[in-house]
Amino acid sequence: MKIGQTRFKNTDFIYYPINKGMVSADGMEYVRAHPPALGKMLKAGEVDIAPTSSIIYAKNFNDFYILPDFSVSAHGKTGSILLFSEMSNLEDLEGKTVAVPGTSASSLALLEIILKMKGINADILHHEKPDLDAMLEKADAALLIGDHALKASYDGRRILCDLGEEWKGLTGHMMVYALWVIRKEVAEKRPEEVSMFYDLLVLSRRLAKEEIDTISVQLAKDLGVAPEFMKAHLETLDYSLGSDVVRGLEEYFAKAYEFGILERIPELNFFEVQNAGY
């Protein structure tokens, strides 16, 4: 079975025990890519299960199942979904331009939703690479996510806003950036293998939380930031998919539909885990 991993430290965190052999994962092949690329690979049958942008699930929900109990979500600010600009207020973007990278589909949709909810008319410029200086040469503000946002923030680049914090302030809900998605064909034909992976990921998440201090040191070293900075970021994230997370997901999809990002509100099709062991 081919399993996707993102290129971001915040998902490396819960995969860390698997990647380091603390959890046996025989028969699993792991493929790394950014969330939108993993979504394309899921659609193409190149991976079987992967964390991908929640908006990608919404646009293709008839082809996928959601792995229960897992997401990358937050109750507000994350420090990793950031708009950078020399401007002082989000409202200053009226009539201006925002450069966005190709590394996240959910955050781009979130940006569009927030701008529309606040009545701000800004032009979105797509920029292939998350290069802040290059992006700001062409636009008045730039969106970075994941490791790129964390590093730019750590290096003292001027932040206009944290999109998760803006979403929380506007809606009162959590924001769900990523879901673990399963190809429908795999879920229906190989449910035992999917359930086995679920068990492994549950155990890996539990061990990661127990070893967060040690893992934060390693991830921080890889990114070039302080361990306490990395740990603080990881502690802002919710990797579960409880009722409050689902409510946030439903609100996000409803707003995406309201503003024309989605053609319809998707059904939430959850995979039924068999004989979970942990």
Distance between the termini: 20 Å
Described by the principal axes of the CA atoms, the overall outline is globular
- For the record, the CATH architecture of the largest domain stands as 3-Layer(aba) Sandwich
Strands of the widest sheet, in order across it, are 7-6-8-5-9
Biggest sheet descriptor: 5 strands, mixed
Identify the CATH class of the largest domain: Alpha Beta
Q: Number of helical runs? A: 12
Briefly note the structural class of the backbone. alpha/beta
Please state the average pLDDT score. Answer: 95
Share in helix: 40-55%
CATH superfamily of the largest domain: Periplasmic binding protein-like II
Order of helices and strands: EHEHEHEEEHEHEHEHEHHHHEH
Query: What is the count of distinct domains?
Result: 2
Overall radius of gyration = 18 Å
What's the CATH topology name of the largest domain?
D-Maltodextrin-Binding Protein, domain 2
Beta-strand proportion: 15-25%
Give the tally of β-strands: 11
Which blocks of ≥5 consecutive residues have pLDDT under 50? none
